[in-house]
Write the structure tokens for this entry.
Amino acid sequence: MTNELPPGLALRKVDERIMTLNVGPQHPGSGHMRIIVQIDGDYIVACDPDPGYVHRGEEKMAEYRNYILNIPHLERPVIHDSCNVLYPYVLGVEELLGIEVPERAKYVRVIASELNRCIYIMYWLAIYGIFLGHSTMFMWPAGDRELLIDLMEKMTGARVTHAHFVPGGVRNDLPPNFEDVCLRHVNYFEKRIKEYAAVFYDNPILIARTRDTGVLSRQDAIRFGTTGSVLRASGVDYDLRKKEPYDVYDELDVHTNVMKEGDSYARSRIPWLDMLESCNIIRQALQKMPKSGSVRVKLKPNPKGKGFDTVYKRVESGRGSLGCYIVSDGKPEPYRVKLSVPSFRNLVALPNLLRGEKLGNMPSVYWSLNYWPVEADR
Amino acid sequence: MGTATGIIRALNSGIKHIALKRFTLRYPEEKLKFVGDGYQFDPSTGVGIAGLKGRHMLFHDHCTGCQLCSIACEGVAEAIAMVKVPEEQTQNKKSIMPQIDYGKCVFCGLCVDACPFYALYMTNDYELSSFSKEGLIYTPAQLQVKPYVAQDSEIQISDRGATHG
Amino acid sequence: MSSDVKTTTVDSKPEVKSPPPKPAAKKTEEKPVELPAFEKSISDKIIEKFGDKVEVGFVKEDRIRINVGKEDVHNVAEFIRDGLNYDHVESVSGVDYPQDNEIEVVYHIGSYSDSSLARQILVLATRAQRETNPIPGNDATKLPTLRDVFYSVEFHEREVFEMLGVFFEGHPDNRRLLLPEDWADLPPLRKDFAIKGR
Amino acid sequence: MSAIAPNFKLSEFIKSLLDNIFWIILIVVLIGLPAIMMILFVIEMPVIDGELLTPFLALTWLADPSRILPVVKAFMATDIFRVMAFPGFGFAALLAAGTIFVERKMMAKLQLRVGPFYCGKVEGILQLMGDGLKLISKEIIIPAKADKPIFWAAPVLFVATAAAFVAFIPVAPGWVVADVELGLLGVFAVIGFFPIITILSAWSANSKFPFIGGIRALFQMVSFEIPLILSLLGVVMLTGSLNLSEIAASQSSFPWIVFLPVGAIVFFITMLAELERIPFDLPEAESEIVAGWLTELSGMMYGLVQLGTYLKLYAFAGLFVVLFLGGWNGPMVVPPFPAELLEKGIEMGPITAGPFPGLPLFTQEMLNGALWFVLKTVTVIFFIILPRGVFPRIRVDMLLNLGWTKLIGLAFVNIFIALGLLYAGVLGPGGLQ
Amino acid sequence: MVGELAGNYSTVVLMFGFAMAAMAPALVISRMISPRKKSNPVKFLPMECGQVPTGEGRTHFMMQYYPYILMFVVFDVMAIFLYAWGSVLLEVPKIATLPMLGFLAIMFGAMAFALYQSGRRRIW
């Protein structure tokens, strides 16, 4: 739709030479999903994404567990971004139960959320590198991610699945001396990711490879309901941290990165700029955070909502706006939990972007959509 | 000429990195150092104490067999089962105690949050692999043992790159 | 026949019971003083245009809920897009209400292009008749699709179709999405589909 | 134990080994020994020093260096030695193995990781051997509808073609397998075989991904052949010869890269493309077409293709050295052979060995030449490996565009530079060389 | 250069044959010592990313960059022809370069035209 087919594809008997390729689920360039692409020579004439290979029914499972015990489950869709994927649920439950969160806990949450965003983006970047055949760009982010994972592990006690946010705050206070270590690691991390420019982002081959491929115009980005880096790469200035600040984001100076081009290169550069921005936010939050105080409100066991109520909360996760719709009927278990995940929303753009594109552009366009198969399947 | 400059910059950056230190943690020889003794929970304030969520440790003299940890785990992983223990443990009138199946445990630590008697903590031990499924099931007697952990490697940042020193 | 039943359920809300949704809606309506002004003006615009075909579920800060019957949902959605500058659907969630014998489909609609609406989410809810023995696609559980209004609902509606059995009439590509190809059980997000052992 | 490899049984493993030994002994006894007997019966045994050569005499000679050394020397002068060992297959395979190891360690260092580490105690130096053992003991799976003879033959042909390429590379003065006048054209002819083998292998597998990969390989190799050929024309014009040994010898004072840097750059880029190395590894682009034309190859077939690839890499690096970096030419660094060893032999206390009349197996020039050649080749290999660490893969249309417009244009520029140098009198008969 | 015997190239053939003779046993040994299980026929299906393969592997498949191959057929010969001139450049009189320059110009012009054509029609 966005890309016109090359003129020769309008030949009469063109169907005879169209080959159907199953890209996935066991393919180095697909992740846990299948993209059925039909190619004519080097051009993709049709594309049909087929997610669902990691569908686990998290939403159904959530209806059987109470509000607290849902926490380890609902962070499973994106374990690399587990704080952020849990965040809207926790915010929603807090609104349902009418809990006020202590100030320090809000800052701890913001720090954890930003660290987790960087961890996710590093993982994403690593895979983007290997999709483009750049093995160094796989190894460096995968290694440097360790700095932040180490911080998260000091903070929450787990390296990947933290289960750290709970309604009413966070589960444990920061360890002693955390601020210094965090600052040191984050500063070094920022220095490291700035070095990626020479090898990756300013690399002329990469620019030639990804510029003007998979162009998503501003109108289409809005029409498809894309979110996060995909949206911002198309020139829409929309970041929930700024537009709808939750917790203490309104007290922090958040800068939104927007690019106009809307091509794969812009979509891949925006997360990198976001990481630099996250480093700034973490430093600000460390400075403004109350040095002491409670981090968690004590709840009754098995908290329940006040009768029938619905709530829809959104946060800006590593991939974009992540919403959680909770229906409560006054029981300790939620009546219905629906995660509106950014990957699923961005997936709509994939068939439209890949149509008429070259086969060699498929991995870069696909992964630049910031798609996380497990999250889309839930 | 921009292309040539970019290519030379990239090659230069690559060659520069050959001189940097390796970042890999060589795991079985080096082990990461963690904060504190593991995740613990203070029921009086309702706030946990930071630490690694590793294998549990059960204090037999505190455990009352109230099953709260088991109930908490039922919604998460169904890893905790209450089993009969010999009568020697005086504190426990019901003489049942948790037994944890680490093949199912997700190390979320909600059982520690649930325990109101300071009986269940988590430790820094994460090396739980076993050749059989039965070996992953830790009985109360095994959970009582404080694990020996030799973890001393920390990330060190210098001009020549970060290493696990 | 089935559509008649449905119409009465949603449009003439007072007489039909549907216990859960009622109290919340009433509570917010009873305290008009607290209603935020901007959100109130939006909901007023919709009321003004459609009269009593629509019902305002609640008006909270940044969130407006509109309940609408299934034959009006298309028109309301078009008005929301053209008249109110909302431009994309964030989420389409189906909620099963076996006690009402209905399935509710909730559209969370937001706006990127209008910066004054950036915080706003308009919740558009509509209800379809629920069948006890569903045959997805071939029973009365049907709703008009909103894909021609909001392109972004395409995959969401496919998901709702397979998870709850709500067939969206006019959707160009109403195929299976997430579940395995050989899934022959009930649509899994219905309340009568029980997880084993729970 | 059972949890690690449930189907592994030590007894069966030992039994398979014993089976193999049994079959080997049986074949040797039934076929090998009669064959040797028949050969001994037919051929005329040489008479040396008035005595008929018998096995007993041969064994006596083995213990006497003054007698065995001339035999070794005579053997080294034969084609068989050259093909099997020194400038030929053995040497190239050794360098190829070294390349694989260095590549893995260097990539690891560049990427701030460790690389092969545990195998062989010292930085994983035996990793390659381990990988070879693994590959040779893996099952070879042939796809059901594959064209079996071609599918089996393709990896072997690939290695053989790479070896034929190696045959043209002169390592030291006089040390080349095929010292032919039209060596450069021979190289072009051999390079022309690679796309054919690739497309045969891809076609015979009857699978989609190898097919696309094979077509890509065909496009890539074919379209980079013209820049490759044109970029070397400058060297041939300045040298006036197509013999690679003569070209190398002609650079005794200046390597041609000083005068023809453009041609060297074009040749280097086309070399990367012909070798299918990143950034030009489109035929094996794993994120698009699983492993390209290697997708269906398994076990030792894959191992052979890898071996062929690295032999080819060595051959191309050697060609670059010969054509642009002066081949074996370099300052004399190898010390002369100690003369007293020839006259007195080695005296270590009570034990005296020698003298060794035929001893300098290799001349000083040859050792020096080989040393310089290896040094330069390793440098070139380093620069072939390095782009893998810093560049992403490019796309087919970009690749073809690069090859057919930019590189051919630059190759023409190179030809005119060479012409200008010749007619300006800088080089050529009246010039520097 | 003149009068070179074809027999000089025998070493190349020898090398080719030696490599074949040395490498074929590797395959044979591998076939002997490696396991061979025919229990699962799915194993022998061609790679299709975990799905059951559909369609033929060898189909009518059109790569859009076909003009480049056609160009190769023509210009490869011409490029080799240049070597006949290049290798004797030092011996022939300088005036002989002029026709070669003309030839180069024609070749270059033809190549530019072909490239222009192939770029104009992206697809054949």
Q: What stands out?
A: Residues 2-169 of chain C form a domain with the Beta Polymerase; domain 2 fold (CATH 3.30.460.80). The longest strand of chain C covers residues 88-97. Chains C and B do not touch (no CB pair under 8 Å).
